[in-house]
Specification:
This protein is of the alpha+beta class and 151 residues long. The chain has one domain: Thiol Ester Dehydrase, Chain A, CATH 3.10.129. The protein is 28% helix and 35% strand. The protein is built from four helices and six strands; from the N terminus they run ααββαββαββ. It has a six-stranded antiparallel β-sheet with strand order 1-2-4-5-6-3. A hairpin with a 3-residue loop joins strand 1 and strand 2. The radius of gyration is 16 Å and the shape is globular. It starts with 8 loop residues before the first helix and ends with a strand. 31% of the residues are buried. This is DUF4442 domain-containing protein. Pfam families: DUF4442. It comes from Streptomyces albiaxialis. InterPro entries: DUF4442 (IPR027961), HotDog_dom_sf (IPR029069).
Length: 151
């Protein structure tokens, strides 16, 4: 990264979230509509059947959701803190090799910001699909986030 380049959401998350570094997560896309994060195949994080451990996949999906939240609501950080409220994950198929998490925001950004403007503490879902290299969806996660007003 040159001295003149602007850090990406992935750069910021890698610098500020130790688990992102631990799992060697790669942020390949991060917009307000979609975030894509890849976890390479790493023996240190395998389960008893040779695929990525459920906890590693949870962290992968949660990290993708965090990337979309930071991209969509980064301009609100001076007045609110994004926090994960609850999560539900379903493991659908055996995951082997590298896995990719694709996150999508479940509510329009403008609606969430309008609630924040009204003095509320908005909640919004982020839906994440976890897939293996052949494209098969191996897991699905929904994480409900909030923007907690400062003060």
């Amino acid at each position: 990264m040159s001295a003149q380049s602007t850090p990406t959401i992935g750069d910021m998350m890698t610098a500020s979230v130790p688990m992102v570094r631990t799992l060697n997560l790669e942020f390949t896309e991060a917009t307000a509509e979609r975030a894509v994060v890849v976890m390479p195949d790493q023996g240190a994080f395998h389960n008893h059947v040779g695929g990525p451990h459920a906890g590693a996949m949870f962290t992968l999906a949660e990290s993708a959701s965090g990337a979309i939240v930071m991209t969509a609501f980064g301009d609100q950080l001076s007045r609110a803190v994004p926090l994960a409220v609850r999560a539900e994950i379903g493991y659908k198929k055996l995951a082997m090799g590298p896995v990719t998490a694709t996150a999508e925001l479940g509510r329009p950004v403008a609606d969430v910001v309008a609630e924040l403007d009204a003095g509320e503490r908005p909640e919004f879902p982020v839906h994440v699909a976890i897939s293996r290299e052949d494209g098969a969806v191996t897991g699905e996660m929904t994480i409900v986030w909030t923007l907690r007003p400062n003060g």
